[in-house]
Amino acid sequence: MTLDKRLTFKEMCAEFDVTPRTLRYYEYIELLSPERDGRARFYHPREVARMKLIMRGRKFGFSLEEIRQWLDMYNSDHQNRAQMEAVIEFADKQMGELQSRLQQIEESISELQALRDQVAKDL
């Protein structure tokens, strides 16, 4: 995307594979602020970059409020030590959550496999 390129609402939805409802919600909660021309919305590279960060945060399992804080840190003119430490803290906390979920999923798979194998044996 060139610096002067902007995406329409429909293009933004397609680019990030999100529903119009999702995109409107992100605007409603002020994670995104597109340019408006009447009823049309246009997303400049800054908003596209913010959406990339939002999608990355969602993929990592962060809440929308945590993503807002993350975006606020990136909005500042410079990142200071406290901001970088906050990012590390967010990441460490979320990695712990993801590790816990992974362990639960692995246990469930193991239990389901044992059940399946027992039923197959009984056939």
TrEMBL record:
Pfam families: MerR_1. The keyword Lyase does not apply. This is MerR family transcriptional regulator. SUPFAM superfamilies: Putative DNA-binding domain (SSF46955). It comes from the Bacteria. Residues 17-73 form the HTH merR-type domain. The keyword DNA-binding applies. Residues 81-122 form a coiled coil.
